[in-house]
Each structure stands twice: as structure tokens, then as C-alpha cells.
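Lab meeting notes turned into a lecture example. A postdoc, R.K., suggested we walk through two folding results consecutively so the class can see how the record format repeats. The first protein's sequence and C-alpha cells come next.
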Amino acid sequence: MLQKIREGDQGSFHEFYNLYHERLYQYIYMYTRSEWLAEETVQLSFIKIWEQRKKLSTEYSLSTQLFRVAKSTLIDLLRKNKIREVVQLPHPEAHPETLSVITAIEMKDDLKRVMKTIHDLPMMQQQVLTETRINDLSHKETAALLSISAKTVETHVTRAVRRLRKTLSVFF
């Protein structure tokens, strides 16, 4: 099914959608207790899978990639809605006893990828991203700290995030 979807087979994608739509919705709803967030996350996740179908990895199952995309999508939606709760989403197919080990390994691997990608950014983008996203400074505070304008901070953040998304889109 993965290969067919990568090749653009809409029938296989519809089959995949029908197979996982309800499961993903219930999973997201279980953690958020929000019909809107669950529905929005599911729809955006399937859209992202279809739009990025040529980049889907053959090393991971389609369901694993879907749930990773859903996790990232949910986090994005929560950020956009200014909800600052941390929602830990374990993979639904993992056994409880192996869940913490799998989660720890995945988180460590994800962190390594993100840190390497940040390290590969131009120096100013690294500094601005670190101050705004890691140290939680506002654009104005970051601008004062780095002696640049707030608009320049915004530009650097936008470029850095765009590059991170492009580079890490296969993994998240």
C-alpha cells in the first residue's frame, strides 16, 4: 500500500484513509477531549501524507508515519491556539512495557535530528531561533539582545522554521 500511495494511487490512499481515519480520530480525541482538534488534526495529517507522498519513507510503516505527522500537526494546532499544554502521545500499537523505551529512543533520535538541523542553519538564524523558541523571548526582546530590529528577528525565525520544516518533514 505504501508504494502505491507513493506512486500516487488514489484508490490505495482512500483505502488507507478508510482504514485509519476513525482510529486516528479516536486516538487524538482520547488525549485532547476536543472534537474540533481531533477532526482538524486527522484531516490535516491525511492531507500532509498525500502532499508529501513521494517523500514517505520505506523504512517505517505507513501508520507510524501517519501518527508522527498527526503528532506534529496536533502540536502545531495547539501552538496556533496558544494552548501551552504538553501532550505526550505514545504510539497506539506499542505495548505498555516497551512504550517508555520506544518513546525515549524516538525522542532522542528526533532531538538529534532537530539539533543537527539547527546547527546547520546560518549563525544568526540559530541565535534568533534559540532565543525565541528555546529561551521563550519575544521578538522585541530578542531584537534588543542581538541589536537588530524586531522585523529582522521575524524574518530570521520565518526562514529558520521554513528550513527546519523542509529538512525535517520526512521525520515529523
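The second example is placed directly after the first for contrast:
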Amino acid sequence: MGKKLTIYMIDGTEYGPRLGEIGNWVGKALYAQRASLTKIINREEFNNPGIYCLKGDPSSESYEEKIYIGEAENVGNRIKQHLVDSKKDFKEIIFFTSKDELLTKTQIKYLESRLIVMAIKAKTAEIENGNSPSLPRLHEADISDMEYFLEGVLAQLCLLLLPGVPPGEENFSFSFHWWLSPTLADLQI
């Protein structure tokens, strides 16, 4: 069965900030370059709990990108902290929230932990996270819901963020090679 992905170009430009939604999926994705964050940071999505990924240049030539994966009960407040933190030198961001705004702190910690473990196992990007948080305790039904949510996250990382590099710009693609290699099944914990 197919899936429907809706991409809304927030500023009307092909490579500007965009909002992504998959039909019958409870989440939303929002992607932006750091330079455009000040124009969109007051959007309602930033006030919700969620998980986020920051992409920047690696400090090692062994990798093409540096990734920081985080979670927050208010994504906007956390992103504002990163914007003024000189240690968080990032160029792009993508974050995921729930359309119904019902993600709990435990659920977003679960998603963060799963993404970090997947990124570390793939060994294709420099992972800036200092530690790999343990999975929080969730009921079996909540784990099932979060694994379904994670499927939507991974699909959107691929579909929204691999369109390529626009002419005249370098290092634009938010590629997240870490989760694409070698296969999703190999990265399960």
C-alpha cells in the first residue's frame, strides 16, 4: 500500500523551510536552514514537544556531516538555546512533533534514544551527542506507537531531505546517511 506525503513550502521557495506530513501518520516534520529559522521560529509547531536533529560540518575528515540529535518538551525554546550556544554550530535542522500535540516526555526520550543508537551503529556521520541515552520504560502499546512514529520520521528524513544540492550552493543536502546504511533492519536494536 502506498503512502501520501504532503510537503508545504513555507516561504514558497523550493529550497526554503518546509513542513512535511504523511497521510494517516500523527506526526509533522519541519525542516529549515539555520539562516531561515528567525523567520519561522514563531510558528506553532515550535511550541510542541518533539525530537530534532541538527546538521553541521564535521570536525573530522572521516565524515561528511556532524549530527546532533535531541528532544525537548518545547522544541522552539531548545532551538533558541542552540542558536546562542557557540558550541552548537549547525547549518540545518529538522524536527518532528505530533499533530495532536500529545507526545509525552517519555515518548520523545524513547524516540531520541532510538535515533541516537541507529546513528551510532551506522557509523556514517560524526555524532555530536556525548552519550547514548538508555531507552525509557514504556508500555508495550506505547512502544508500538513510537516505533510507528519512528517509521514516519525515517521516511521523511529520506523523502524531504535527499533532493540534492541546489545550483550554486554547497553542502545543502540534509542527507542523514547514517540511517540509510546498510539497511534499516540492520539498525534495529
